[in-house]
Amino acid sequence: MKIIFSSILIVLVTTALIHAQTENEFIEFYCSKPNVVQRLDKISLQPHEYDVIYYDIYLDWYQVLKNVNRNYSGNVLIRAKVDTVNSLNQIKVNCGLSVDSVTQNGAIIPYSLASNVLTINLNRTYNKGEIFEVKIYFRRTRSDNLGFYYYAQSSQTFENLAYTMTEPSDARFWFPCYDDPSDKADSARITIKVPNGYSAGSNGLLRSKTTIGDSTTFIWIENHPITTYLLVVTASKYSSFSQFYNSNFPPNEQIEVQHYFWKSDSTQAVYVARNIPTMMQCFEAYYGKYPFVKYGHAYVQPFSFGGMEHQTLSTIHRNWLTHDAQSGIAHELAHMWWGDLVTCETWKDIWLNEGFATFSEDLYREYTQGKDIYFASMNVKANFYYSNNPGYAIYNPAYIFNAAISYYKGALVLNMMRFVLGDSLFFKSLMDYKNQHLYSTATTNDFKNSVSATIGSDFSYFINQWIYQPNHPQYVYNWNVQSNQTGVYSLNVFLKQKQTHYPLYKMPFEIKVQFADGDTTVRVMNDAIDQSFLFVFSKSPTNIIMDPKNYILKQINRDITLDTGSSSIIKGFYLYQNYPNPFNPNTVISWQSPVRRHITLKVYDILGREVATLVDEVKETGIHHFPFSIIHYPLTSGVYFYQLRAGNPSASSPKGQAGQVFVETKKMILAK
Ligand SMILES: [Zn+2]
What we know:
Blueprint: H1 6-15, H2 20-31, H3 34-37, E1 50-60, H4 62-65, E2 73-82, E3 87-94, E4 98-104, E5 107-108, E6 111-114, E7 117-127, E8 131-139, E9 147-151, E10 161-165, E11 187-195, E12 199-202, E13 205-212, E14 215-222, E15 233-236, E16 239-248, E17 251-261, H5 266-272, H6 276-287, E18 294-300, E19 307-308, E20 314-317, H7 318-322, H8 326-334, E21 342-344, H9 351-369, H10 371-388, H11 403-421, H12 423-437, E22 440-442, H13 444-455, H14 460-468, E23 474-483, E24 489-497, E25 507-515, E26 518-526, E27 530-537, E28 543-546, E29 555-558, E30 574-575, E31 586-593, E32 597-605, E33 610-619, E34 622-629, E35 638-646, E36 662-670
Helix pairs in contact: 1-8, 6-8, 6-9, 8-9, 9-10, 9-11, 10-11, 11-12, 12-13
Residues 1-2, 309, 331, 335, 354, 357 line the site of zinc ion.
């Protein structure tokens, strides 16, 4: 789902300035919807004793669209399997509707309805694994518009309009169901009766359209698993057109994209849809095959949101059509993978839907406009987050549709994950996660476990610091340059974390080092709250920029009082990354020693064979640089390791004899 003004906000990124008023409208709009955000406490239902297999929904919207009666009657057959208990003779179903009767195999069975929960006494006891069916005949008699919306023709509603819109938990107000994202029906059939001349769009494929007298009945079949908040029906006197996307999986399979709009919007509806094939191509390239049988847009107005990713048929505010909101359109399409194919198992995990769809907006930007636009758009999102951070974590947020947290910070965390893992591992992680949970649901913990398996190491630290913790790190830094008579310039960078809410954020840091004649960017791992880094250059750095691409959500300031004295900062042994790296034929290997100690510095090839001993003597306290040139060694291109051993000259000597042993190894690349 997307809030109404967000796409307009982001669309402006490419053209230039973000109009302040737009942001204000965005925030005001959002804050005016407390009814939406207060529903987290409503979502926990009774223990789930059965697993829904199938919904067969019938809706009679004839009188509604004739503008005779704002309410309608219908029925739903629920097929379910006894799931978590050994036997079951009573079920509970969410139902914010009036109930006329409940049957099993055509026979009436007893029920009671209280507090929007329908309790049904089954006709016998069913054992674990057994399948049962109940059919509920209901009427919508509510005066509010929860779940179901009807607008008579007016200046902004060009034809009588009826639609459903339920995220997170209003599906119960248009048909009785188990209204929780964790339970996907394997399939669904939706039958809608409307007056002649009206179209009724829904999930999946149109099975039939039958006209009898002055009414027409549409039957839609969704053959893929679907959860209740993603079911939809939208009906009006619509015009329509279809585009066809040639999927790459398998080659040439065509995906139909159906658009429902009012006739006067015909030209604009075609125009606004122009990029959908490219969006499909982009998301298929990164996320794999489009997961459903069709896609589409149904334009509505009024609408409390911008867009809603109903499975295979997104509901889109007509504003997005008139404003050509490409970003919003990309967002809803991306939800087909993130939200519809893989669905957040609980609303606490909403960022798995919204963070991913919001990230995808910028992935599409990058795909079509390049990396600079991607970074520019991420920066706008970061600034929105800084200005509107409510101070709670992404996981289990107080307000699930908070734009700064579930949407923007969620997207920015994925951007950071991409930075940490690199493109290939990042997108493989997303793909593996998707493949493990497709047509099903996932929690944040599932995501963490999946990524950990893909990257081969525990990803908990990252999820903990960015998803389970609120806010972001606060850094101070300082730097200086020291030179010696050999023309070697040592750049010392000091980085300290100051936040109080979380002890340590572990993140790589890029540092752009500027010289009189250009710049270079180095990357370090910041894994201590108080850390210094040393880089060696053959020319003098003139300035540094920390995290020049703003990957990391943070506050950072230079603190010129931060300790730059060379003796006091040597708090331990440290082996620095060689510079330059890769190299040919010269590089410099540097280390620091807090005490006078015997030092060996050796180079090994990739098979672990020693190829050079560079240092084997007692060295004084301080920072040392060793210029290493391969002209003295017959080395071929490839990966080498250099190892510093301090305090114990040979591995066979008993530990402790010469004090504690410090050993550190780093990788360098010889590129001839
Ligand atoms: Zn969304």
